[in-house]
Amino acid sequence: MALDFQQVREQVKQFGEQAPQREKRLAELRQQARDLMNSHAEDLEAMIQKVGLVVSSHDPSLRCALPVAEPLTTHRTLPELTQSLTILAADGSQILPDRHAQVEYSLINVGAVQMRPGASEPAVTRVTSRCCTPRSSRRPVA
Questions:
Q1: What domain range is 94 assigned to?
Q2: Rounded CA gap, 108 and 137, in Å?
């Protein structure tokens, strides 16, 4: 079946019209999350117990940070940098093959950033994207 662009156009228009309501709802949810964090910031033992309960009864593969000794709302000023440093970050994503698609393919996208805070040169970015067919996906991605 061909895509009905008129239907999609109407849906995109509705998304745009509903954007202010979605933003308002997101702002409310963010405030609710801040309020919850502030009200439970000091009760570290209860949070550790709740995470343990979720892991033991619902999701043993859960990976999350646990509070140790400071309230969740603790913040400090960063120390002065006494030496130069390099920050590296990488991220990747993929689209797995769809066996129902007319053409079976997958997509792999990897990006990396290198930056030196305080240095005059700009951050260096690199993105590698690769579209693979069943025949090409057996080769390693460069």
A1: 81-142
A2: 10
102 is written with which tokens? 């007319």
d(C-alpha 132, C-alpha 113), whole Å:
24
DSSP state of 44: H
pLDDT tens, residue by residue, 29-83:
999 999 999 999 999 999 999 999 999 999 888 888 888 899 999 999 988 877 8
Instruction: Single out the residue of 84, 72, 74 nearest to residue 33, CA to CA.
Output: 72
Letter for the amino acid at 2? A
CA 99 to chain centre: 27
The CB-based long-range contact list for 61-69 (8 Å cut-off, 24+ gap) reads 68/44, 69/44
Q: Residue 73 in contact with residue 41, Cβ under 8 Å?
A: yes
Q: Is the Cβ–Cβ distance between 128 and 110 less than 8 Å?
A: yes
Rounded CA separation 123/32 (Å)? 36
Residue 86 falls within a domain, yes or no? yes
What is the SS3 assignment for 89? strand
Looking at the structure of the chain, the number of domains it has is: 1
